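Exercise 7 asks you to align residues with tokens for two separate proteins.
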Amino acid sequence: MLVLGISSAIAILDVALVDKNAVLAESCDKETLRAEKLPELIDRVLKKSGKVASDLDAVAVTAGPGSYGGLRGGIAVAKALCQSLDIPVVGVPTLDAVARGIDASEGSITVAAPACKGEYNVAVFSASKGGLKRISGDSISKSKPDAQGLFIVGQEDVFPRARSVALIGIERLKGSEKSDVLELSPRYSHDPNIREFNS
């Protein structure tokens, strides 16, 4: 199963192409969070792997929480690809993708992503030889969490990697989980701060 992973939830754009469990190619842009760069990154990944868009079986994309513009841009690109190719799309929680990318064999993992107003989006996972299991829903912490096994998104190269997004997407597709391409929308932890434009 050939799955394109798109991660655009934070100020890093990451795209990866995964076939079963093998990463065929990936491309990352840490300079800017501009969804306009996603088609370029996708094209680069397809060329590196020797594949074309019509080879894709599905697209997996970070669905939130995360940056307002980043999530909207990534989901829009994923939906456009899936609609044009008539393939499934899978929305992957951002904190699941972060946890999947952490090298931990045993114990508890707490993933925290900065939100707005000094708050953090937090989720707790249990790591074992059998894999990773989510043991809490997403929650909002009013301050930086104080927990063992804490990983803060954006520190020490901790971010939702597209390879993790794709791998989670493959697992969910095997379990017959997919998102409705028309219904998939970003999951924000806070209402976006949008000001009305007055001309």
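Second protein for Exercise 7:
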Amino acid sequence: MEYRNRERLEEAYDSGKGIIFSFWHGDLFGAACAGAGENKRRRIYILTSKSRDGELLTRFLHKIGFGTVRGSSSKGALGGFLNLHDKLKTGENTALTLDGPRGPRYDAKPGAILLAKTSGAIIIPGALHYSLKVTLKSWDRCEIPLPFCRCDVRIGSPVIVAKNADRKEMEMIRKSLEKQLREIKGAQA
């Protein structure tokens, strides 16, 4: 794995604030691999849905050492949000997909922005690119890296949301985060 702009992540760690790792749903498997080292540094809790697929993902993530919080925009949204907020307040890090659990693909939902506003955490966007991969035919075009491939982890600019940000400001930040993540992924609007 090669990291681009890793210094952005180091600055976020140095701030002492919680980190919200954010990425597209299609990068979930690669993000788990890339995040394994970060998880050893400071535990990461990943938001997983309450669906049957979410249960399988939760088991996989537990086996490789991550914590999980169950809930999504469609089921258990408030409980999932509050659990992530509590993890950030106790010094843990979190991760979530901006366009999950059902899409549309590459359309960021506002959850990460609200979580950053209420917790004071920093959003670190990231995208993955592989030299060899399989792309599934699912809604998110999930990419699974193949063994021995080169993985390029691109870290975006940190996003900070002021505690007093109003709805208009939060929407502007959401659009900006979506644009940035699309750009580092190389995704079309």
